[in-house]
Amino acid sequence: MIFQFIQEPFQYAFMQKAFIGIILASINCAAIGSYVVIRRMAFFGEALTHTLLPGIVFAYLRGIHLFWGALSASILTALGIGLLTSHKELRQDTAIGVVLSLMFAIGIMMMGIVRSFRDFSSILFGSILGVTSGDILLTGSITLIVIFSLFLLYKELELSSFDYNYAKLIRIKPTLLRYIILLLTALSVVSAVQMLGALLTTALLITPAAAAALIARTFFSLMLFSIIFAIFAGVLGLYLSFYFQISSGATIVVICSTIFITIWIFKVFYNRWQSSQK
Amino acid sequence: MANLYTPLPYCLRCSKKPLPGTPAIEIKNVSANYPGGIRNAIDHITFTIETGTRVALLGPNGSGKSTLLKVLSGLLPPSSGIIKIFGHPVGKCFHEVNYLPQRSEIDWDFPISVEKLVLTGSYIHLGWFLRPKKEHFERVDGALQLLGLNNLAHRQIGQLSVGQQQRALLARALVHNAQLYLLDEPFNAVDIETQIIMRDTFDKLKHAGKTLLIATHEREHIATDYDDALFIENGKLIKQSLSHSS
């Protein structure tokens, strides 16, 4: 019975691709999401998913694959925010607010030219039916880039995340590392857009890492827990979506949030119990 | 315990060695300002600190002590003036300079153990991509032992007391193993035990030939613990002398 429950979705090629796609996207988003959460850049993650819109519409108008449009827009956003905040005249949240509203407005203006909302609905809200072998190849390539970069730069990224000045003092170039994180975040978000949709991808980026941050004792374990939570939510979400005919993106987000709320409640009670023991 | 004061081989980037016979710090007419600042945080400051001495940097809050230390460490570029560290322009000898910041400059909620924080002091010896080796971990053990933190090595940095956090930062500075230490109010809000351990460590560093410039409010130990003192007020150097009176 359970074996059949597990096996059945795999009889369909589109579900096999969806499972591979969501696992790869979960790894990307959860790994880089750990830095996004720990560096208090959650608003940036949220902004990235919204600023994809003009890129997607532009790609549609020019007849290019929507993936490349989304990728270009997210990289442009990352670099724009990085540039605006590099001289410290502008706070990061202000810069993000400015870039987010500008990019989203451009996207809506461009949608007016196309005069069709339906063509973009799969990108905005996600669709597991739309995952192609090409998407998996692109997402897999992004996974390799993200994991390799995070592995190679682990000690530099970790130090610059909690002690910017010491990293700068020993010439670790924290500003360059910040740009690398912004670009890797942009890549990761784009890798998950096909599955979750532009509007819900933030959840895969932020929520598993936020849940992991509540229980992790080291940064490595935070990243590991975050990836485990994201894969669990992604896979379970796809099963539930398959059997109950509900939106896969929304289901995954609800599972991510349930994991977070459960751990948060556990942490609150654990802390109270610990305080009472003293 | 590993000898904390024997130099480790530095990474290839760290090629500038201190020029023999030069002072540790030599600055002339140095001014600096923060971006968007209306007036100079430090204003036309000139002084020299000889190698191997321990010097106190005194002044009220907001007088420019932290700014001066940041300028000397290369974290804040001066707007005018000349700075020489061991005979080189500031930043050329960066591996020989350690800046111990005020506690507020570090994210103490970051999930990292005391041992790992102290280990980051070895990164200057490694450069990009390389991981610490056994010898670096041995130095970390030695530094933790010297500062009485060996029992707390695996504790998260956010769970330490203020004094323990300050000692952890000093342990990292020891692992960095610089020639010049710029310490920003290390005695601020710390317990008596930490004060004693830190003074003892500063003695050891001085005997090892290191130069220390320590920003502090504590005037009672100036005559006994320091070789010289710099008094600054409103960003200007008002006196370089051990004497309290003007």
Topology:
The complex is a heterodimer of chains A (278) and B (246).
Chain A: H1 2-7, H2 13-38, H3 42-62, H4 66-85, H5 92-114, H6 121-125, H7 133-152, H8 154-162, H9 164-169, H10 174-196, H11 201-215, H12 219-244, H13 248-277
Chain B: E1 25-32, E2 42-49, E3 54-58, H1 65-73, E4 80-85, E5 88-89, E6 97-100, H2 114-119, H3 123-126, H4 134-146, H5 162-176, E7 180-184, H6 192-207, E8 211-216, H7 222-225, E9 228-233, E10 236-240
Parallel strand pairs in B: 3-8, 3-9, 6-7, 7-8
Antiparallel strand pairs in B: 1-2, 1-4, 4-5, 9-10
Q: What can be said about this structure in brief?
A:
By secondary structure, chain A is mostly helical. Helices cover 83% and strands 0% of the residues of chain A.
Keywords:
heterodimer, A: 278 residues, mainly alpha, ABC transporter involved in vitamin B12 uptake, BtuC, 0% strand, globular, B: 246 residues, alpha/beta, Rossmann fold, 6-stranded mixed sheet, 4-stranded antiparallel sheet, 7 helices, 27% helix
Describe this structure in words.
The complex is a heterodimer of chains A (278) and B (246). Chain A is mainly alpha-helical and 278 residues long. Helix content of chain A is 83%, strand content 0%. Chain A has 13 helices and no strands. In chain A, α2 (13-38) packs antiparallel against α10 (174-196). Chain A is globular. The model of chain A has no long low-confidence stretch (mean pLDDT 88). Chain B has a single domain, classed as P-loop containing nucleotide triphosphate hydrolases (Rossmann fold, 3-Layer(aba) Sandwich), CATH 3.40.50.300. Chain B has seven helices and ten strands. A six-stranded mixed sheet of chain B has the order 6-7-8-3-9-10, with helices on both faces. A four-stranded antiparallel sheet of chain B has the order 2-1-4-5, covered by helices on one side. The longest helix of chain B has 16 residues, at 192-207. Chain B is globular, with a radius of gyration of 18 Å. The mean pLDDT of chain B is 87. The chains are: A mainly alpha (278), B alpha/beta (246). The interface between A and B is medium-sized, with 28 and 32 residues.
